[in-house]
């Protein structure tokens, strides 16, 4: 038997309720896992609220976790009972649980020198950074990028990796405290975008050129300004909507500066098992080498998932949130 957070109706955080759920033995190609730490992401909030209609009800949300293998199904190779594994997955989700069945293709072994709390709180965001910097846009040393919410979960890791690649990073942040967090992560220039006009600041810092690549996860509040802050022939990557959905963009708007606009979703980049494993290995190595560093996570018992969602949605977090079964 597992205990899991089951969503029976979409709505506010109160729909996240703990229930007893049976867990079967693993079938062909599957693992049974006793979970040790579960990452909480904005995606889970959109799933739970019903904004994304990607969870079949009643259903168990959650895209990432770590856990220990309790048993392996027939035909599973490369894993054994007792291994600590991690995974990131889109629909049908299911991470908000004490125990679960997992397709072995989704599991990656956690290296001995990384702990489960670090991995469960950062794998999805670090894979997102790998996707954004190496696959969606191709960054080269000397480029200038603008990162919105630069002290956030993804933003902070994005600053660390981009600075390591020799890119000049301009970051927007919501407070002086967050400016310090972004600067410590390698952000070269911070802009307090609630009190300063970030378009003017980016123009000043780039001598009127604009940023070569803009990473915008804030969405509604920043997207029009991001179009203005992108250099001619530049690339605006909208990968989130923390402040609300982005309005449609006319092709003629892009033509004004020959802009490229992307709207990537991590799960689409993880569909090929080999690519997924290569990306996971690369971010594990980045943590092992200290290129990426993790902040100690804030933890909640699994039963308090609703509280964790409200905390993440408050927009005040500068460290990962974990549910601990
Ligand atoms: N496309 C993908 O595959 C993918 C993958 C992972 C994450 N994401 C997206 O990336 C974004 C960042 O995720 P994260 O987990 O790292 O979160 P986060 O950046 O830690 O938190 C969001 C930040 O956005 C800023 N913000 C601005 N307006 C906001 C509002 N109205 N409500 C809440 N926050 C607001 C806040 O920073 P300031 O105070 O500095 O403004 C807040 O800290 C999310 O939108 C998430 O959905 C997308």
From TrEMBL:
Keywords: NADP, Oxidoreductase
InterPro entries: ADH-like_C, ADH-like_N, ER, GroES-like_sf, NAD(P)-bd_dom_sf, QOR-like
Domain Enoyl reductase (ER): 11-323
SUPFAM superfamilies with a match to the protein in the record: GroES-like, NAD(P)-binding Rossmann-fold domains
Superkingdom assignment: Bacteria
Protein name: Quinone oxidoreductase
